[in-house]
Write a structure and sequence with these properties.
This protein is mostly beta strands and 171 residues long. It contains one helix and eleven strands, in the order E-E-E-E-E-E-E-E-E-E-E-H. It folds into two domains: 4-116, Jelly Rolls, CATH 2.60.120.290; 117-151, no CATH class. The protein has one helix spanning 158-168; strands at residues 4-8, 20-27, 32-43, 53-58, 61-66, 68-69, 79-82, 87-94, 106-115, 135-139, 142-146. Strands 1, 3, 6, 7 and 9 form a five-stranded antiparallel beta sheet that branches. Strands 2-8-4-5 form a four-stranded antiparallel beta sheet, with no helix packed on it. It is elongated and about 80 Å long.
């Protein structure tokens, strides 16, 4: 899987064609999520973006649906979509606009893999509490658990230690 990339609507920066449904399936390695930034958006406006739109999905759940132009009331400039996991699906669909009247250029976006902070999550088996019982250390694409470090102090009486071993039958 790619760690970063760019996606553009067909024919970008020229006007996009009518009667189109194009899908992109993005994947990054496990332990990462996808951060996608829309750097350009010019998609014909319609109520609820029902005609032309760019829709983002994660496991069939809609994360966002866009139409309009950058810095308009329908779109507020650079939008960022963050997938909950390591995949993201984009669907760009266009209606049957007459090509001569359609002058919208579509979209351009960049994406990159972002490390998931597993240590900020809770244990899915327990539905509460942290993943690690003591220390959670987030690493690139993963995490590991560690224990608090204790230092034994040798200031206790040697006689106490000897008597402890004698009581347990080790000496």
């Amino acid at each position: 899987p790619e760690m970063h990339g760019q996606i553009q609507s067909p024919q970008y920066p020229r006007p996009y064609p009518p009667h189109l449904q194009k899908q992109w399936d993005l994947w990054v390695p496990r332990g990462y999520q996808i951060q996608l930034s829309l750097t350009h958006l010019d998609i014909k406006v319609s109520a609820d973006c029902s005609q032309d739109s760019l829709t983002f999905f994660y496991d069939e759940k809609v994360l966002g649906k866009f139409c309009g132009q950058g810095n308009s009331t329908d779109h507020h400039g650079d939008e960022t979509i963050l997938s909950p996991g390591n995949k993201l699906t984009l669907v760009f669909q266009t209606s049957d606009s007459t090509p001569e009247h359609q002058q919208h250029t579509g979209f351009s976006a960049t994406y990159k893999a972002i490390d998931i902070d597993e240590c900020s999550k809770t244990d899915p088996g327990l539905d509460s509490g942290p993943l690690c019982s003591q220390i959670c250390i987030n690493t690139a694409g993963s995490y590991h658990c560690s224990c608090h470090k204790y230092k034994l102090m040798m200031c206790a009486s040697v006689n106490f230690i000897n008597s402890l071993f004698s009581l347990t039958g080790y000496l």
